[in-house]
Amino acid sequence: MQQVFFGDGFKICCRQRAIYFDDRIVEVRPKTLTLMLSLIESTDEICTKSSLLSTVWDDIECDEQVLFQTISEIRRLFSPIKVIQTFPRKGYAWIAPLTTANDHEQVMGEHCLEKVSSVGYNVKAATQTGSIEPEKSKIALAELFKKTTAKLVFALLIIIAVGLTLVMSLNKTSVIDLTAGTIVILPVSNHVIGQDHQWVPLGAMDQLIGKLNNRGKVMSTEYVLPLVRKLSRNSSYQGSEIDKVFAQTGANLVVETELHGTVRDYQLSYRLHFVDSSVAGVLFSNSVDNSLLQLARVINQYIGSGAASLREQFETELKNELIYQAVNSRKAGESEKARKMLVSTLAIEPNNSSVRLLLAQWYIQDSRLLLGRELLLNAIEGKVIRSDNNFKANNSPAIGRFYYWLAMSYAGNDKAASKQALTDSIAHSVEHHDLLYLGYAHQLEGELYIEGRQFIDAEASLLQALSFHQMIYCPMGISNVKLALAAFYLQQGRATESDFYLEAAKKSIEQHALPIIIWQSLIN
């Protein structure tokens, strides 16, 4: 088997299970590497899904979802370099050109330790002769020595810090001790609408496993899959199901998660089930990967000596539990109960911009416009004060979102105030590169222009809204704006354009299985 593969801007070292890029080194999971090698060994040939499943996961029964999420993982590792081509209903093929170094070559260690471009040796010459130019080898060894020395010093500092932490922890009583137990991460229950998030249950679970410390305690994806095969991956887990997982695994911690929201506006609800207790919370993020990283940081605090100090933060846990219960109540249709829980959360932490924005959004969606507007204005004007912390929405990257929902609160009865809030929303969203809310704001702006019979401006705003949603590939946003354009052009007597966007919207809705009803005005 080849041990090193050289590509344009990267190299794959099988022995190290790593991919070396110009600016970073990425560790690869064993199954991911096995899948990559299976594709590489069949370069320019289409590998069927069934053959890949039987080759890579020959030790366990898996479905196509596992293959799909691992292919997605490989694409993320190499992005923006395109290495895999999908052939619908057929399979996958490796398409990135590669050269190789054989595993009997003397330079194997150097191949795996050097960066792709830091030394700049001639790949073709190296693979043909099995040697590297002497001067450049010396540079590589000097670089390696410096890096190794730095790593040793860094490691020594870490050991000292850990030692001090352990000594200090002897004076504390840990409520939850996971030092002797294992951790099971369940598939993420996906509540994001559309086909584009079908990878989430297993894919996000696998990503979270990979982000955790103390990997020896965290059960691998291959271990978890047979365990949860009969559990639903798109609905909440029952208490009896959690108990069964504890009974079958002997775990000390079982992690349950749910993903809500839409593209660039996610909420990841979590509950950490311990043997005799549990803690919960909700994380807000513009990407699934970032929300998983936040959750990994939370879980890592419970692994080992960090558990005791975290359990002492009662106020934080109470706040997280309230947010979790609020999201669950909202999902169950108990809106008043959900809002009261977020109000209680803000009493604990008034400067939590994510909770304040979510509560204002719920008020406005429930036609409680004045309450929502008051929350937003107090934040925007900096009237929220707690001890020496003066929270002001203008300090938050989400400022454009505050102004958008303020515009929504005015849209029904004060067009001028709504337009001014939209102007502020667009300006701040451009500054913070918030493409999702640029799409929302321009669509609302277009609707206000239509009401004011400013049709040229309305068309421009709707087309801008569509372009922003297309930039982030948001199926819900794209479909809704296409329906708005179809209705606009129909109103203008431009039947050809109206039909075009109506058919495009129908296709998008069907393709992504979106719960969008075609507007009655567009049905002949």
Automatic annotation (TrEMBL):
It comes from the Bacteria. Signal peptide: none annotated. InterPro entries: OmpR/PhoB-type_DNA-bd (IPR001867), Sig_transdc_resp-reg_C-effctor (IPR016032), TPR-like_helical_dom_sf (IPR011990), WH-like_DNA-bd_sf (IPR036388). The chain crosses the membrane at residues 152-170. Keywords: DNA-binding, Membrane, Transmembrane, Transmembrane helix. Residues 1-96 bind DNA. Residues 1-96 form the OmpR/PhoB-type domain. GO terms for biological process: phosphorelay signal transduction system; regulation of DNA-templated transcription. One of its GO terms (molecular function) is DNA binding. The keyword Coiled coil does not apply. This is OmpR/PhoB-type domain-containing protein.
